[in-house]
Amino acid sequence: MKPQLLRVSLTSENSFSVRRDVVLYFYDRWHYHPEIELLHIEQGSGTQFVGDNIQNFQAGDVFLIGSNLPHYWRCDNAYFENRKDLVAQATVVHFLENFWGDQFLQLPENRPVARFLEKARQGIRLFGELREGVKVLMHDMLTQTGTDKVITLMRILALMARSEEWETLSSSEYPGQFNEADTDRINRIYAYALANFQQKVTLDEIAAVANMSPHSFCRYFKSRSRKSFSQFMLELRVHHACKMLIDGQLPVSQVCFDSGFNQFSTFNKYFKEITGKSPGQYRKEFKQG
What we know:
Elements (H helix, E strand, L loop, with lengths): L3 E2 L11 E7 L7 E2 L3 E8 L2 E5 L2 E5 L4 E4 L5 E5 L12 E8 L15 H9 L4 E3 L1 H14 L4 H16 L4 E3 L14 H14 L6 H7 L4 H12 L3 H19 L4 H7 L5 H12 L3 H9 L2
Parallel strand pairs: 1-3
Antiparallel strand pairs: 2-9, 4-7, 4-9, 5-6, 5-8, 7-10, 10-11
């Protein structure tokens, strides 16, 4: 798939970027950039796409997205309704892997950090005490200047490198080279899928969105995403069901139909295939903490 190359701007006084975004909704385009991205979602929820991985995101999540790894944060539909009670807020750090010089990460003391940044090429989600510690340090960086800010970034990376409280997101086989010319096409596909996954989307329909023949679209989508469009839609529907099972009290049968499945048996089958649990077990385990 062809994401958009995003240009990250810097002032002459800064070698990397730290900012807090307060917006109606998050970064609603499939994009990538050479900078590594450290992201703390402070407010907001929705669906994230990192490489070939699809998951839900929510307030409190912290991610490290490697250089040139495509990603897309799409807030829930409610954030697009101009509601005064909803806002999306995040602290974002962007830095080039070599912004401190080509040799710094080659020092023997920094090799664990260099290895961890290699893992970040698949995208990383933090959890546990590591996530909470990184949140505090990211908050500190918003008001720091000069060397203090650089030292705090190094502290964050050192914490990550010696912790095991993280998981990779995308597969290691996900391609790392892209052509900007196809950006609009993949964004049209994603936007249409996200708007319509609760109903049947035919191959002819989505191929028309991409301005391709059905046969060409199938080859195009699978060669870029490492999955068929039908599998992509199943994952969207299952992750939406996960959110509904966590957030509400609707019976599982209603969650099934509201997530775009027409048969309860099909819903159970694919939910367990993707999450490893039945819908009822998933809800029960979440409530138990």
